[in-house]
Amino acid sequence: MARTDLDRTRGFTLVELMIVVAIIGVLASVAIPSYLNYQLTAKRSEAYANLASLAKAQKSYFAEFNDYIAVAAEPSFTLGQVPTTFVRDSDPVNAAFATVGWVPEGDVFFDYDTATPADPLTGTCTCTDACFTATAYGNLDGDASLSVMLYTHPDRLGGFCETGQGGNQTPPFEGGARMFDQVARVLVADDF
User: Fold this and answer.
1) pTM higher than 0.85 for the full model?
2) Across the strands, what pairs with 174?
3) CB 47 within 8 A of CB 183
4) Which neighbouring-strand residues pair with 147?
5) Which candidate, 71, 48, 46, places its Cα nearest to that of 58?
6) Is the omega angle on the peptide bond into residue 172 within 30 degrees of 0, that is, cis?
7) Which tens digit of pLDDT belongs to each residue from 142-188?
8) Strand, helix or coil at 104?
9) Cα separation of 74 and 134, whole Å?
């Protein structure tokens, strides 16, 4: 019996299916890492928003009481020990920063602290008064290095507090000058 053209139009050959599977595999191998990196970057935006808000709260507190408040990292039990790939309850952060009057918006991926000259936590301070460094730490990608974000408010002479978590971190440089009074990502610690 001779094959007709109608018999060939009923389905796909095995070779055609294998080509389609290979194309889908190549597309997935490119798209999935990009998507995961996009998710990590989106989660990191929490630290930008919360550190800017925390800095405003610290400056408001300073305007009223002429002092900045040092707060140890909260939630302290997670700092650098476990990946923070899932949001955590923000109640420990709320309680720790209650004196300053700052609460993060919603649950958090990052741990937060504030170092001052009165209590430099585990870092060092080159300033004498009227400065603080607020820091966010997170291990969003589950590797051995922390993502570190800083908001550093220097004193009038340019002195500042380092953060001691994740290795003494200082405000990064941009255009030859330190990034003060803005949220800055520490590139040495952050690898995505």
Assistant:
1) no
2) 177
3) yes
4) 138
5) 71
6) no
7) 777 788 899 999 999 999 988 866 566 788 888 888 999 999 988 77
8) coil
9) 12
In the chain, what is the greatest distance between 2 CA atoms, to the nearest angstrom? 98
Partners of 22 in the beta sheet?
none
| CA pair distance 20, 12, nearest whole angstrom | 11
Average pLDDT, the chain: 84
Query: Is there a contact between 84 and 78 (Cβ–Cβ < 8 Å)?
Result: yes
For 72, list phi and psi in degrees, rounded to 5. -65, 160
Strand, helix or coil at 1? coil
Residues above pLDDT 70, as percent of the chain = 85
**Where are the chain's structural domains?**
13-186
Contact 152, 162 (CB under 8 A): no
Q: Is 41 exposed, middle or buried, given 0-12, 13-18 or 19+ CB atoms closer than 10 A?
A: exposed
CB 125 within 8 A of CB 116: yes
Cα distances from 116 to residues 62, 130, 164, 177, in angstroms, run 12, 8, 12, 21
CA-CA-CA-CA torsion sign (74, 75, 76, 79): negative
pLDDT at 64: 95
Are β-strands 183-186 and 71-74 bridged in parallel, bridged antiparallel, or unpaired?
Answer: unpaired
C-alpha to C-alpha distance for 152 and 51, rounded to whole angstroms: 10
